[in-house]
Protein 1
Amino acid sequence: MVNERDELGPDLVPDYMTSVKDGAFYGWPYSYYGNHVDPRVMPQRPDLVAKAIAPDYALSSHVAPLGMAFYHGTNLPAAYRGGAFVGEHGSWDRSPLNGYKVVYIPFHDGMPSGPAQDVVTGFLSPDNHARGRPVGLAVDRTGGLLIADDLGNTVWRVVASGK
């Protein structure tokens, strides 16, 4: 999970998840999300920008993904097995606020394979004030999803209905 750079606008730059390849160059600080040049960085390095690889999966801008847990448990619905839960801590410099939730990203053959699905929301009030900020995720020994909320000073446990 990568928290990308700020101050390029409310819709740039998308935070992302990516695999790490030995010897690969991911752009920092010369470019973002592959070969998109950051005009603020001087001197420019077009030789490195040309080598920058794009990430595997884009999240939204400024969601601040701080926690990720792959799910292999059996407590939650089978549709969640094999994918990743991501805790989006939330934006600090974007209006409207963005993130402040836990999403699920399906995987197939070891790669993200579909759109992020909201799983745990409600961390923002109807008037757009933060009530919680998911930061760390883990799966407990029973297959429940644990969510550390550093604003609410709470650890939430998510299990299937009736368990």
Note: The CA atoms of residues 105 and 115 lie 6 Å apart.
Protein 2
Amino acid sequence: MNFSRIILEWYDLNKRLLPWRNTNEPYRIWLSEIMLQQTRVAQGIPYYMRFVEAFPTVQDLSSASEEQVLKLWQGLGYYSRARNLHATAKIITEKYNGKFPDTYKELLQLKGIGDYTASAIASICFGRPEAVVDGNVYRVLSRYYGIDLPINGSEGVLYFKELAKEIMDAKNIRDYNQGIMEFGALQCTPKNPDCNSCPLQKSCVALATNRIDILPVKLKKNKVRNRYFNYLVLVDENKQTLLQQRKGNGIWQNLYEFPLLETEKYVGHTEVADNLKELVALEEPSEIYLYNENKIVHKLSHQHLHTRFWIITFESNLENGIQIAELHKYPVPVLIADFIKTFKI
């Protein structure tokens, strides 16, 4: 059975009409690939459309402020991708005169572009014979060939990359690479794949050995860290509040948030009041109360944020205060954005 030919035939009949499928322009392919890393297509499309409208070219993205970029990215998560996107746009504009390099090796040198993205851009935009290996490709190859090497281990990564190179259709690389990724997304899905209608079913090792549900194999993830966030939402008599920008290399770098009291467990009114003076140089508040009685647990890849919002009102004015009605203009983590949508005072 000719694996690549079947993938190409399937793709021709089943490919979705996606907004980046009607172009080979590197900027738009790059944008879509960065956005779709660990993001579902349905969720990514509106972000892609807003970015293209706001920044039609890589030069437009380059000249934007980081705050503009982070605000448009808000809700997609993994904000380092947005910062890398912005940095790479500047490099392409300034070093490459607005034109993307057309080889895998050169693309790989750009910030935020790894093996998968470099292979995707080189093959889809420039017809280079580079094999793509993303989560969908890992799943298809692991099941079809019955490979139980962990896909997130160093040995597995190298093995699957070499296998992908061996079986790719170099002459039709644009459609083949998009086809095998689409096949994994629509046909060979993570759960309940439609094996009865699969054109590869007759030679699929996982189907023949009843291992569809256990392939691909992944090494166990690191232990999840629990953190306890107490956001202090300060409100003065003019309905102003305070935001601060997160610094350092932790989560949400350069996004805005309310003053934060991080603790080792859930705390009550007394602990919040006792720590308030260390965080905010103001007179005694007139009221402190918990906004969300129900627990909010915001789950990230390696940490769970147990979050409470405390409303703290003052009769005096806050220095450098922001009107509560203007909060929506700032790039914030989705956890904060959800609170802002519901907060009324």
Note: The first helix runs from residue 3 to 14.
Protein 3
Amino acid sequence: MTDFTRLPDLALRSYGGAVVAASDESFAEKEALVRPDRPGFQAETFGNKGQVYDGWETRRRRTPGYDWAIVRLGLPGVVRGLVIDTAWFKGNYPPHASVEACEVPGHPSPEDLSAAAWTEILPRVDLKGDAEHPFEVRSAQRFTHVRLNMYPDGGIARLRVHGEVRPDLSLYDGLSLDLAALANGAVVTECSNEFYSAPHHAIAPGLARHQAEGWETARRRDAGNDWLVIRLAARGLIRLAEIDTTNLLYNAPGEIRLQGRDGDGAWSDLLPRTRLQPDTPHRFRLAEPRPVTHVRADIYPDGGLARIRLHGTLA
């Protein structure tokens, strides 16, 4: 896979993504396209519609045209790359596909989206069966929806839409928000170690269901400690820090320290080195909030965090 796959999947169901419409889903449901897990398969498992597939599968076309599915991005943003996965579809995959995208504000219906101005971000490409197909996207435009087209019909297991989150923070004027939330535009810019799972999991939406949905490092065998740096959604004043070690029963850090900086300024303490408990959501009020743009979380000596939430107000 290419570097863009390190960016969050903007279409992921657990991030609020959804398949809002499709031309056909006779054999397998469209909603499978944005499931977070890898596609599964069990041979000779038949239902009323034939072999059961963990993906989206349409009927065999007997008329001109092609099939399509519209995906609402749970995290609107700039798309940097796509992965079209035809896992387990071997004799019934589409030979070609393309992807379009659009930006529509509010909460548009499928009818509204059909009339939207769509931009092609991936021209028609060749596909193989039972394979992941990564494609880089060169566009700086913000999008809220993508449309996957397959020619002429067949099955696709997953669509991954990797990119950079670009939210509308004007909704929070005068209100508090999680300045470290991926959904609000925060991003992990640096990390000491991501052996078991990606650091952006720590700022992902929702609660971690298991260890793999948080950030976890390898076991350290030296005198150092692990850390990550978060560029906040916007310059703000942090008043409450939530440090969640849920699901980390034997590999939670012993302690944590939070430091902040404004722009390229010096780091200074927001939360001094503080003890943590395993499998526990912790909440700490921060004394004397001041404007910061970045936060560094040091964990001692290693381990994992399910989530980091930094609640405050825009500066």
Note: Residues 172-314 form a domain with the Jelly Rolls fold (CATH 2.60.120.260).
Protein 4
Amino acid sequence: MSTLLRGQTAIVGIGQAGIGEAPGYSAMELLGQAALAAIADAGLALADIDGLFTATSSHAFPTLSVAEYLGLRPSFFDGTNVGGASFEMHLLQAALALQAGLCNAALICYGSNQRSAGGRLVSMSEPQWHEQPYRPRHPITGYALAASRHMHQYGTTRAMLAEVAVAARQWANLNPDAFAHGPLSVDDVLASRMVSDPLSRADCCLVTDGGAACVMVRAERARDLPAPPVYFLGAAGAQWHRSIVAMPDLTVTAAAESGPRALAMAGVGLADLDLVMLYDAFTINTLLFLEDLGFCPKGEGGRFVQGGRIAPGGALAVNTNGGGLSCVHPGMYGLFLILEAVTQLRGAAGARQLAKAEVALVHGNGGTLSSQVTAVLGSAAAH
């Protein structure tokens, strides 16, 4: 895997808006607020942005709509939409464009008012051709199928899945920006209303509003800007299917491909990682990604997370903001993973700040376990 991109670009600004509930604001307004916050955090002006990378659930032509709304005339733009993993892919695309000199300051942004809109956006892009006759509930039916298969094949239990939700809530309780706070036990998860067997309401991500954005520049420029730069070390994507019925193996995701390639580009191994941000739309996601990325053997994810291993104070820091399960999940969550990684690598995470945060893995997921994109970010110490 080429390492030519390693450390050549950096995230220099982050911003968010409307986390949780933001009644009265459109998806575009939340995106705009987050974008302006990220640009200000970078010490730049809107006029400095000449690269635009965005995907939304609301616009068929996202770069056109966002550029018009913000008043941008970008020299390079990309609206790749592979679901929630789009923004990890945008990191790679922005790094390529910056390194090629096609733009000088790249904005990656997203916004959704899904909660205020009554959750009506969740199924806009779901497939209809294979699955519709069976009347699935998108997207949870596909994830429930994967969870059921994992339980059947490897002896995973609902209590093991519940450990993921409990750990996420414990991290959220340390994050004042998280939407869900308060106690949550394994028994609470097991007693929660069943939505799609074996996944209960507590096994499912939140439905929130929220906007998020980050700004990337070349490394030499990053050193002159006010915020501590967080360097792009590597990224890779993989996709094997669109519809869950076409997934080759319900217990193996394309993260098994994207993860090793991203780590190779970054020149790091799993032992070098201080933080792991995984797209936890459902509790089964975390188990599958821990396995496919190599943290434990296939089938051992449920046992791996037991005993608080991924909770605060555990051996592996996973989803330190509270994840999609307890922090925020406005339809497409991938950019919020990046924001938390940057916050930790800057040393600015407050009560949840890790003692050592130099290298972070960020893994995005889109569709029904469909698109998988892994990115590796590092502080100046890792650069």
Note: The longest helix spans residues 27-41.
